[in-house]
What we know:
The protein is of the alpha+beta class. It contains two helices and two strands; from the N terminus they run βαβα. Strand 1, helix 1 (42-51) and strand 2 form a beta-alpha-beta unit. The relative contact order is 0.25.
Amino acid sequence: AGVTDLSKIIINVHQYLDSDYSGTHDQCVTNLNSTGADGYNLDAFYDYLQRNQLKAMVTEFGAGQDQESCREAMNKFLTYLQD
């Protein structure tokens, strides 16, 4: 697209805390350190951004209705973002 200065680009990130990251399930996955095809890969994504001098902003996130698993997952996710 002719963009040569990636420092001016911000990647728009959506993150849902259920098993397939769609935001359509009541239960949430609470192991946010998981990796691989079925993992959250938060650290891997952060490392990718750092290696490539890219920026990202979480503009949308959500959890399901199961209070126990989703409260835990949401607290962990918000703490991750804060850190």
